[in-house]
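Entry for fe (ii) ion complex. Fields follow.
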Amino acid sequence: MKLTDALLGEHGVIYELFAYVRDTAANSDDVQQIQGAVEVLERLLLSHARIEEELLFPRLDPHLGEMGPLAVMREEHRQIEDLLTAAKLRSDTGALRSVIGQLLDLAHDHFQKEEGVLFAMAGQFLDAADLTELGNDWAARRKVMLTG
Ligand SMILES: [Fe+2]
Ligand SMILES: [Fe+2]
């Protein structure tokens, strides 16, 4: 399996979690419950971004250069991290909901750019064998057994 297919599958699952966090923030007045939902999202988003930064982006650097889409993606990863940290520091529901709104909008937009632009570029610049080898690295990190 290609790494980009694995990352797309992760996006699909994380979109569901975005919806859960948005619903929890909208419907609950319990700060701890809302922050608990954000902590699950943090765990998934950070490990997802780490896999992109360690497996995919370094392979694209020689093709895309330091500036351009990779610089934007790395910067957005930092901004997402900052908003996750900010959410943990908010103790009133209004401020917490506002940070979560910014976080979900940014993360959703970031995913869309990766799907529409970056992963397409990966398919253009990296050959299928490289993407499959990277997919094996992804499976080892995620402890997923690939057969065939
Ligand atoms: Fe990303
Ligand atoms: Fe991603």
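NOTE: The mean pLDDT is 97.
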